[in-house]
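hey team, just a heads up i'm posting the complex here instead of the shared drive bc the drive is being weird again. everything in one block, sequence lines first with there labels, then the predicted structure for the whole assembly after. its two chains so it's a bit long, scroll down
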Amino acid sequence: MELARLARGGDESAFAEIVRRYSPRVFRVAGRFFRRREQAEEAAQEVFLKAFTQLGSYEGRGSFEGWLTRIATNTCLNLIRGAKRRPELTASDLSEDEGALIENLLADAAIARQRSVERGLVAADLAGRVLETMSPDDRLVLMMMDGEDASVKEVSEATGWSESNVKVKAFRARRRMRAAVEKLLSRGGGWAGKIF
Amino acid sequence: MRDEHIKDMLDRAPLASLGDDELAAIHSHAEVCGECSRAYAAARVSASLLEARASREFDPSPFFQTRVLAALRERQSAGEAWSLGRLWKAAGLLVSSMAATVAVLAALTFVAPQATTQQIASADGTYTAEDVILGQGAVTDGQVSDARYSLRDGRRRGEMTMDRVTKSSWQVCAAAAVIFLLGFAAGALALNTYRAWRHTEAQPNQQDRFRQMSERLQLSAEQEAQVQKIFDDTRSQLDALRKESEPHVQEIRRQADERLRQALTPEQWLRFQQMRDEMSQRGRRGR
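-- predicted structure starts here --
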């Protein structure tokens, strides 16, 4: 890739163009890990700084976007590995909006599909809070496979994990996410009857 | 169907990817099993939450590119200050002289003592202690005996010293290496400090410039105080204005860049940015 070659040679404008062109992609990766915009932007900046120092390792065999995605994924994983994990959430930690959202999700799956913008934001925020109680690897695999419909192969390429390792991690992550959500469902105690 | 089997099905793949047969099996079992019913409800809520979370995306802010480039420049300048390459460049001459010093020290340590030993051995082969002492003239047997003992003792001490020199040769090497490294670091730091000091001296600071102006205008003490206050006020006003307008200026620049980027081909856009950087560097140099 011409831009990468120019940037490697110290051409700052070429690197600026790389930042402009691939920012949306890097922000999408960072968004899998960070709930707040400032955190995602901070991580995205770190990704580009790291990519700049590692430009020499890009040999032009695969796509530049794939190479950058891998750097972004690993950088974000390392950033959240260094951060403290939040304690697990319980039903009493839910706000009124979040409680209502869960009631709706349980009452009728169709409501979730026809959700309003506000409900979508509440759901996204609650998902972020639940994910913050989980390990970085769990967060990544759940966001990619269950949130974005990524295949095992795509997760493997983005992380460098083997495909069988991705499957094992995904299985365990789903189990842990399900267990975390079950703790939230005990609110009111009457949810079981609303499922069917 | 056992409970564990249903939970395995829930965890093996994303809920949305399960086939009709699998969903039917889960439904039929969940209707009669409370534990699996809760598990299925949690799986459905999890899937909905993750879907909502994935649909929320952050767009880069308009200033993101500028911010990354500023951070890159900052990191590069910080890294350059301490890079080994820079140290090496700064201290090349000093390192050469240190290497020469170490070579001389090594020669003195390893070559000189061997020469002394050879001289002793040669002396030992040509003359005996008795010859030496008896050749001096009239001496008693006791004096001869004392002299022999003294020479033997001296030779033994010399040999012991050489043994110690051989055994501790690795220590000498280590010491030489440490001296070399310390010298390198000290020299590099001294040179960098000197260059920084010279650079600072070469650039007159604000106070110097003000003093020069005051001398040329022959300002009185009272006028100096007034002018200084006017300068200070103006500077703080301009700083405030710059801070206030910076986001607007950046936004205008970003919009102009965006329009230019659309008007030019990617190659022309790159070339244009290079030309702009060159012009801006020339402008900075010409100031």
